[in-house]
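Two records follow; treat each independently.
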Amino acid sequence: MAKLTKSLLVASLFSCALLLNACGGGGGGDSSGYSKDSSSGSSTTTPGFTNKYLAVPKDYQNPNGEAVQLYYTIHKATSPSNYKGVLVFNFGGPGGEGVSTLQDKNYYNSLPSEIKANFDLVSFDPRGTGKSAFSSCSTIDGCEDTAPFMGSNTVIQDMDRLRQALGQEQISFLGYSYGTRLGSLYAAKYPEHLRALVLDSPMDPREREVINIFKDEIAGDETVAKFRLNSSEYHALKQLMSNLNSDGSYTLNSVDSLSSGDIQALLQVITTQNIEQWDYNKNDVANLLGYINNGFSAFSSTSKLKDTLSNIKTMASTGAEERTFRNVVCTDQLIGYTQPDADNAASTFASESVIFGDYVAQQLGTCADWTERKDPIAISPEIDGSLQAGPNALIIGVEKDTNTPFKWAKSMQQAFGTKASFVTVENLATHAISYIDNFSCVDNMTTQYLLNPEQPTQNMTCDYLNHSGLSLHARSIEHKQNIILPGRW
C-alpha cells in the first residue's frame, strides 16, 4: 500500500502494544467508564502515572448509543500550589499511541521541571491504537467498517469528553505533527475550552485531500535531501534513480547491487532519519553515492549502511498502525479519489521529482476507491475565524522538516493570524522538536508560552548552527534515539 515511509522507524514502539480483544470496542473498565489499570512495570516506563478507561460514544451522531473505551494516562502535577491545569499531549500519527510515549522515561525526563510541577500530564491512545477501541485488527485491510468512528472529528470529541471527565473547564495542548491537526480542529470547535496550544511541526490546515497532502511530501523530501547531501552526492542519487532496472533494482558492479527495497530504504535514511541516526549513516551514504559517481568504496564495504537498510526493511509498520492511518486520513477527506485518479496523480508525481516522485506515489493507493462513510474535517479559511477567536497559539516550524513540509507550518501561522507566535528552526533536518531535540532555544519558548499563554511572544528564529553551547556530539545520542515519536505525521 505505502512506500517505506516515515512511520517505519518507529515501528518498534508498537511491537509491545497490548491489543484489545474485539474490533467493536475494546479496553476494560467498569460500567461507569472509569477504572484504574495498573502500570506495566516496564523499566522504560516512568512511575507515578495512573491509567484509566473512559467510556465514550462509538458514534457521536448517536451519542446515547453504543459506547466504546478510550484509554488514557495522567501524571499529577508535582507542585499543586502552582497548578495550571491539564496539559494534553498528542504525539502524531495517525496510528500513534499516546499513553506509552508520554510514560516513556526518555520523554518524561526531557520535560522541564516547571512543566511537571505546574501541570497534570495527560495523554490517550486515539481510537485504533494502544488499548483504546478498534485497535485489535492486525491487517491493513481489516475493519474498514470502523473507519467512520476513527476520524479526526471523532478524536477531538473524545478529547473534549476526556476534558470533562477530568473536571477541567480548559485544557492546554501540545501536539506534534498529525497532533497539530487535532489541536487546530479542537481549537476551532472548542475555543472556550482551550487555555494554550502548541503546534510543533504542523500539518497544513488548508488541506484534507490525501492526494494533495502526498504531493507536498515530494518537495519536502527534496528539501531535506539537498540539505543533507552535497551537490555531487545529490547528482549521484538522481543518477541512481534515473537508471533503475525494470524490477526497481540498481546494479552497482558485477558483485554489488541494490534491491528495490534497498533503494526505498536508502531514500528513507536520507530524508527521514533524526539527527543522530543520520550522523551514524551519513558517511556510508556518501561512500555509496561516491561509488556511483566515481567507482570507489564498493557497497560491500559500507557495512553500517547495509545493516541500516536491512533493519529498515524488517521494521515494517504493524498492520494495525497502517490500518489506523488509512482509516483516519480516508475518513477526514471530503472528495476522495478513484484508482484511475491515483494512476494519473502518479504520473504527475514522477514529473515533480526524478528521485522522490515514484517513491511518494506508492502511497496513492491508500484511499483509492474508498467506500466507507466520510467525516470530512473543516479546513482553513473556513475555520480561521474560530481559531483567531481562541487563545494565543505557539507554532513551531522546521525549515528542513523530515516529515511535514515547512510551508504547512506557515499555513498554520496564517490560519491563526495575529493569535500565532511563530518559531522558525533553521539549519536542522528534524521533525517534532519541543522537548525532544534538546534544543533550548525552542524548549525555552515552549515552556515560557505554556506557563503564560496570555502574554504574546515575538516571532523568532532558532538557528541550530549558531545556538551557543550546542554540540551534536556533546548531546546524548541515546536521548534522541529513544525519543522517536509514533506515526507517519
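The next record belongs to a different protein.
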Amino acid sequence: MNICSYVSCVVMTPVSDDERIVPLADLFRLLGDATRLRIVLACVEDRIAVGAIADTLGLSPSLVSHHLRLLLEHVAEPSAQWQEGA
C-alpha cells in the first residue's frame, strides 16, 4: 500500500474523527522529516531499489533503509486493521 492509498484508507474508513486524526497526524509527523519526504517523493511514481534511491538523493543505503522501515511500520499496522474491518 502506498502513502496516497493509506491516507485515502484512513480518511474513508467509517470511524470517529479522533480515530482518523491520530493516524494521519502520525503520518504527517513522519513526513515532516525532510529526508523521509525526499525518499517518499523519489518512489511515488514507481518502485525503486534502495540503492537507486540512495544514489539519487546522495544518501547511504543504510539511511534510506532505516527511513523506509519507519514509514513501512507506520503504514503496515493501520492497513492491516483496515483490511480486517472490511
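Discussion point: The chain is about 80% helix and 0% strand. How would you locate this feature using only the C-alpha cell line?
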